[in-house]
Amino acid sequence: MKEIKAYVRRSKMNEVVDKLKDVGVKVMSIIPVERIGTFENPQASELDLERVSDHSMVSKLEIVCRKEDVELIVDTIKQHAKTGVKGDGAIFISQVEHTIKIRTGKEGVITLDSHCPSSNEKNE
Fold first, then answer.
1. Nearest to residue 27, comparing CAs of 59, 4, 58?
2. Could you confirm whether domain 2-123 is CATH 3.40.1090.10?
């Protein structure tokens, strides 16, 4: 299993989410965050937005999926989040070691059966 984290311009998030739904992604989290870039004073010991020269409001998208769905999901995000201007965001992919459904107690990849594009093929 993989976790995809993408930082996307807020102005592009609705388009990205709509296209992810179109390709079969059913469950995702969207979190508003403030991205921080270049510091005016990198020696500062505490983070203070008054000392930050480049910060912007973006959305963080989180999706846990099967390994075989990563390419489709990442390609969809890249295609629909891109404006071609600096600050379009970034995508990070990491390994998920284990999942547990709190309500049912189910564990492992089976917890993704209703979340991922590849699970749609099973249900048809």
1. 4
2. no
